[in-house]
Amino acid sequence: MSDPTTSGSQPAAGAASAPGAAGGDTVPVTPADLTVAEKAGLTSGADAWHTKAIDRLGVPAIMVTDGPHGLRKEAGSGPGLGPSVPATCFPPAVALGASFDPVLAERVGEAIGTEAAIEDVAVVLGPGINIKRSPLCGRNFEYFSEDPLLSGLMGAGLVRGIQSRGVGACVKHFAANNQETDRMRVSVDVDARTLREIYLRGFEIAVREGRPWTLMCSYNRIEGVYSAQNRWLLTEVLREEWGFDGLVVSDWGAVADRVASIAAGLDLEMPATGGYTDGQVVRAVAAGDLAEADLDTAAGRVLELVRRAGQRPPAPAQLNVDAHHDLAREVAGRCVVLLQNTDELLPLATDARLAVIGAFAQQPRYQGAGSSRIDPTRLEDALTEIRALGTGEVTYAPGFTLDGAGDVTALRAEAVRVAAGAEVAVLFLGLPPEAESEGFDREHLDLPAEQVALLAEVLAATENVVLVLSHGGVVHVPQAEQVPAIVDASLLGQAGGGATADVLFGRVNPSARLSETVPLRLADTPAFGNFPGENGQVRYGEGQLVGYRWYDARTMPVAFPFGHGLSYTTFSYGQASVVTADDGGWQVRVPVTNTGGRLGREVVQVYVSLSGSAVSRPPRELKGFASVEIPPGQTAEVEVAVPRSALAVWDVRTGSWWVEGGQYLVQVGASSRDLRTSATVELPGDGLQAPLTRESSLAEVLADRHAAPLVAQAVQQLADQVPAAAGLLQDEEMMTLMSSFPVGRLPGYGGLPITEQLVDDLLSAANAARGTPEVG
Hints:
The chain is of the alpha/beta class. 28% of the residues lie in helices and 18% in strands.
């Protein structure tokens, strides 16, 4: 697919093109051309899916639709989850994230963008970048990962692909939207470092690298302030720090105070409110409660979005359904994670006698429920595809029903009978559709009881069992250690049945990796006890230790670690090396050899740590990765970029990013717990120092190489007035006792002749010597 081209004049930002007096010419429409009422109307929806047109100026309405793994263009105009036009259902983010391949995500985005253009859709509402804080979040199937780097890079790839077709993407849900329980009101209590390094970082990567046209604010509050009216979030961070130049749209129904939202930086409220909130805006401007300049800014961004949409190149006359389905199957095959393969039970021989068991084999679970649900152009099931690829006998037994109907005992007995009579039993288990969805969170990690019982009886009937899992969120598999082969098929989209068969028979060599840790039990998870909160508030008590960071910090055993995934071939790693890049970061290089007999793809992961850090850190963090295809017997020299910005931590004292200097350990491997090679590298720091203030402790002042001599000099000068002061620094017991004492409280303490002026002069001199700014 080639990139679109554009031609013609480019109106200024904040302007939409409207028909001019001469045929074919256009004139820019700006907020200055609109009345206050028109500007208020333009910044809210005409219905559930369209912006408002301004007929007198020739400003057209544009359409937005749900995504993010396909196009959900509803047939009607009202809000709801009704039928939509058929579209290709690609693997949702839970699967796509497991590919660890932003280029693959970009290809999916290109296809979605093409389908949106064919349907005259201006913006696709996706991707979702939110972190999987807890495996219980009911919407985790829409999100990529528990890691912000992986989430951000995969999201940026999808954005680039969609927008390459002249259709806007919408990164969502900004920010800290990590649960469905009380999602419209809950307030997130999170410390500044955690917010920056975990929950905002993925959005920052997607914004900076993907340059999305739009971004959607979330429903929830952060520290009591709704995202839709959080100026710090929508203006100071998003626009002033990250350089976002697009439009901010509300999640549907997220606006509690339209006037406050416009002042904060929200540009478009969705869906329509029948003019109710438009009237609030008009009255607020008239009363001086809302600056018209703020309304002009929002209206200008809507006009700019309309202009961008109007530049879309001609779309294909119709959708190439076959080509997009083939792409969906290819991508789905790249998203299958092989968790376990004892004695190389997989891949299956094509002539093997198989027992296919489980209702999911015939009734695929291929996407999540809620606003991202796609009406697929076609749908493959694994049973049909297994029969199409295999030449041996394939018997089928449902084993259970998805709706709970039927004779459970009889269904199970039939499944055990066919399993016992086959060479291999391929067992399809997973979460039923009603177990997870947008709108509610899960209560546990367990498979349904009837499926657990079925697994136990099938294992008792035959040694050769391949377990295929369908799910949008993490599931616990009892007796996992007794199952020879486990295939994580998560949610693979409309072609997932064929992709699963491709992997089972070895037509596709699995290469995906877990983008979320699989714990042994719910009580081990980071947010346990702090999810989903209570009384409208949720505390992120685990801090930065989200996902693998938590388990590694506690050396806690897990079922399967982050980044884990097997192949039908094997790979060996040579010695890693690190060279400094132009930006002050690193290029990590490692030779990787395919030591098996099949073409395979390895996901090389780079983890970084710094022992003895001045701030708390996880034992290791993912800072780069690469997906590389290597022929059998050959070696690839893999290079992974680690930008200097990826090594920064948030300094809460100065409110800025800071790269700490020191000797870093760089570990390279196949998962967060399968690290094959390492190197150490000395990294010069930024030299950032928080200024010393009256609130600095005596210990902090004395630890500073510039301040300590000044303190000693001041104490010596005081010795003439109070002889005991001369020995103050030598009194270890007293210094220990006073170490946490803020220096601003020393004046007058215990009769010491210390004045505020003396303290201020000392701090000023020390800060000047350190090169740190004064703090008023």
